[in-house]
Amino acid sequence: MQSAVDALGRLDILINMASVYTKKPFDELTVADWDASMNVDLRAAFLCAHAAVPHMRKQRGGRIINISDWIARSGRPRYEGFLPYYVAKSGVIALTEALALELAKDNILVNAIAPGPIVAPPQTTDEEVKAIEAATPLGRWGGEMEIVKGVLALVDSDFVTGETIRIDGGRHVK
Asked: Which residue has the higher pLDDT, 12 or 77?
């Protein structure tokens, strides 16, 4: 964070967007698998916020945007084999809400985005792509720019904090 402040003169926005998304059945999970997901998906968001907040306080405000997941925002797991990911991304939502409460007095707004089908992972088969499109009310993948639009809206707002916004083409309602 200090390098960013040194280079740019200040720190206005932090976006925590990192993830370990590896499918592994519960019976095969190790403590190392669990820790890897928690460290990248949840702990890193806390550590980055912890490092950024003093700089934001000095300038009397800022924005922190965490990236969660539409499934975690829906409050129920839907896919087996992603236990640490689901728990960590649910933790990101809790972190977002708790930080929003803690940092409101400093005019630091903390929100999260919960993406759904944005871009198909490289290993996704044509059949899987079509199945996800069929399960998404808008009938398509969103594309990276939908996340950018959500981030820009949250950065621009002066009165939204503690929210997790799904950007999922309505996927959560099906």
From this structure: 12
